[in-house]
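Worked example 3. Consider a protein that binds iron/sulfur cluster.
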Amino acid sequence: MAKGSVIVRPERCKGCAFCVEFCPPRVLALSPAFNAKGYHVPELADPEKCTGCDLCGMYCPDFAIHGFRFPKPAPTAG
Ligand code: SF4
Ligand code: SF4
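Given these inputs, the predicted complex is written out as structure tokens:
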């Protein structure tokens, strides 16, 4: 089960692929589609393996991607 996910803001992306290169589990890939500026934007190619670490967000020079962790499920009683 995925521990996190990403939010991409395509209008800010310039397709540099830093996020793809620096993602530790290598779960990002540049989409074949273009944004309005003509750049390929990242997408989660393997969403189940995203940890939500936000390294992609830390390396993005344009604040175009942001990783976040899902809340931990509450412990079950009993
Ligand atoms: S949040 Fe972490 S694991 Fe998920 S895509 Fe970004 S760098 Fe990769
Ligand atoms: S999201 Fe940021 S780091 Fe990733 S390709 Fe776009 S501009 Fe580059």
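Take a moment to read the result before moving on. Helices lie at 18-22, 55-59. DSSP finds two helices and four strands in the chain.
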